[in-house]
């Protein structure tokens, strides 16, 4: 029978999983966190975070959809402008997910940029990370003629759902297109683990005045 032995100093077989740090989800599960718990007050190891900050991600996503708001401002009737704002708000459901790792929050971080669309539209953007307990951001978007002005704040509450992490946005945002004003809350995420599926619920309220015949309408 052929036998092989490892002499002292010879290379031993290497287990690819040996010494590999646990995933964030596994680490959170082993920490005894309850499903749905807010991670804002949990001190997590830095290697678990993505290199990109939350503010950078929000700025990147806003630049991907600002054209929708510029187009909405150029529509010629109140109803078409209203539908354009709807399209802009619901487009956030199609943005890049944060993934299975949380994003860093750096209080005091600011981002300022100018967006120029291919058709000549231009918008200015400014956002700031506020020094609050949960990651909170104030942001403003406007055009030179101020026919379009948007401002608001958003708080991202990252919650643990047993097998994944989800960022749940909270806050309010106001969009002004000339004489029309829209105030809305961001979509919220509801996860039903007991039924074995996840579900995204968008609850958005619009207060537009004057929209039709000078009256206030809510949707």
TrEMBL record:
InterPro entries: OSBP_sf (IPR037239), Oxysterol-bd (IPR000648)
Gene Ontology cellular-component terms listed: cytosol; membrane
Pfam family, one: Oxysterol_BP
GO molecular function, a single term: sterol binding
Protein family per UniProt: Belongs to the OSBP family.
Classification via PANTHER family: OXYSTEROL-BINDING PROTEIN, OXYSTEROL-BINDING PROTEIN-RELATED
Protein name: Uncharacterized protein
Species name: Eutreptiella gymnastica
């Amino acid at each position: 029978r052929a036998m092989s032995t490892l002499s002292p100093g010879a290379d031993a077989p290497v287990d690819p999983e040996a010494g590999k740090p646990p995933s964030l989800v596994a680490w959170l599960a082993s920490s005894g966190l309850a499903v749905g718990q807010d991670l804002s007050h949990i001190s997590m190891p830095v290697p678990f975070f993505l290199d990109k900050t939350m503010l950078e991600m929000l700025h990147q996503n806003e630049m991907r959809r600002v054209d929708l708001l510029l187009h909405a401002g150029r529509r010629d009737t109140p109803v078409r402008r209203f539908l354009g704002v709807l399209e802009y708000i619901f487009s956030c459901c199609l943005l890049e997910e944060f993934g299975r790792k949380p994003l860093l929050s750096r209080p005091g971080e600011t981002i300022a940029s100018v967006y120029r669309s291919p058709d000549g539209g231009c918008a200015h953007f400014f956002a700031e990370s506020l020094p609050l307990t949960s990651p909170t951001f104030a942001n403003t978007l406007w055009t030179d003629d101020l026919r379009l002005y948007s401002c608001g704040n958003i708080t991202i509450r990252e919650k643990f759902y047993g097998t994944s992490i989800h960022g749940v946005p909270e806050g309010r945002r106001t969009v002004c297109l000339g004489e029309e004003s829209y105030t809305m809350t961001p979509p919220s995420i509801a996860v039903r683990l007991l039924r074995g599926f996840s579900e995204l619920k968008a609850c958005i309220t619009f207060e537009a005045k004057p929209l039709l015949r000078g009256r206030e309408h809510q949707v």
